[in-house]
Amino acid sequence: MSKKFCDQCGAEMDVSAKFCASCGAKVDDVVSNDKTATVKVDKAKNDSKTNGFDFSNLNFANILKFGVVGLIIALIIGIIFLNLTWGTISTSIYYTDTGLTWLSFIIGVIIAVGLLSAHMKDKTEAIIMGLFVGLLTGLLESSIVSMFMGRQFAFWFDTFIGNQALILIVIGVVIAYVGNAYLKDKIHLGIINNYLGE
């Protein structure tokens, strides 16, 4: 006796059914005796692609393109913000308060990764891009400060703020996930609504 199984959840169905009574999915007219195991494996693969991270089809060119653009944006915003917060530094004989300058490259990574990850199709690619931008911003921040603000200020930056690579990596990954998971639809919907004039 032949049986029919749902392609999505693997539930046994009536041979003439067009929709699964268990999950409501539309089913093909495929009849088989040994389909349950295959369907459950396929369902697990589909669930890992939709809910988890899929490393099988990564587009490294896309990651690199968004990563380089994000790195440039993060470094430019970091230098601009560092110049804008210069006045918040206060020093005395007993202590040095860095003011808001320590936030400079953090703000740069948040803005760059947040905006770019919202335009990436794949969540895994966005997270790798965020990791890339955070890591390289952390590694290059001291050199960029030295290049644009002089060695003396770079020495001060390294002494009182230090290397923020670990913080920037964590922020890059978290913001990439949030931007891709929650901002993607809102930004794209906003662009479509503006285009349509709604």
UniProtKB/TrEMBL annotation:
InterPro entries: Zinc_ribbon_dom. The chain crosses the membrane at residues 66-87, 99-119, 126-149, 161-183. Keywords: Membrane, Transmembrane, Transmembrane helix. Residues 5-27 form the Zinc-ribbon domain. The keyword Membrane applies. This is Zinc-ribbon domain-containing protein.
